[in-house]
Amino acid sequence: MKNIKAVLRNIELFSSLSDEDIDKLAAISKMEHYSPGSIVFYENDSLSHIYYLAEGRVKLYKIDKFDNEIFLNDVKEDAFIYLVKKTYKHEFVCSTFYSVETLSEAQILLIDIEKFKHMFIGRYEILTGVLHETYNLLEQFQYIINRDLIYDGTAKVAHMLCNNLEDFNKMKKNDIAYRLHIQPETLSRIVKKLQKEGCIEIENRNVTILNRAALEKHYK
How far apart are CA 216 and CA 130, in angstroms? Predict the structure, then answer.
């Protein structure tokens, strides 16, 4: 299990805090271990803690009215996995717009919201830091909007190849299709098309990018 103080000191949001402040923050924090496939929290849960992914990987998802799981994004270690809904005077509310499930063994730092609010929320550098982290998460959702509402299938695959090639080569075809919200057969056709265009080559099921600029044109 990771040391709480060491994790806190490594978080950019708390980089300006003194050793005394880190000690206070550690006193209202705890580290929890999650096995793969564990639910961290569900959409619409009432959160009592701020969640920071210290180690591992999680996915963010929603459930539609037909009980289908809609993949939103995955998050790697060293990242917050909450979304600030309201910050005003002494109000500090974290929303659960999505559910979170671990994709691997994970260690998550939990910071008590009420105690954090009373100790730190009045401090300008902390408040701006919290908002900055929220904006980072919102930028990820801008990509999700593009992926699901703007990009066609080719754009989705090209974007993943350019920005997440390692995962593309590691993951199974069905898992990639699930994340991109396309059918596995569609994924296969698009990959063959990009190969024919000379954008990529495939050897032993491993994709190598030959022409990044041509790939990027599919989604830019």
Answer: 32
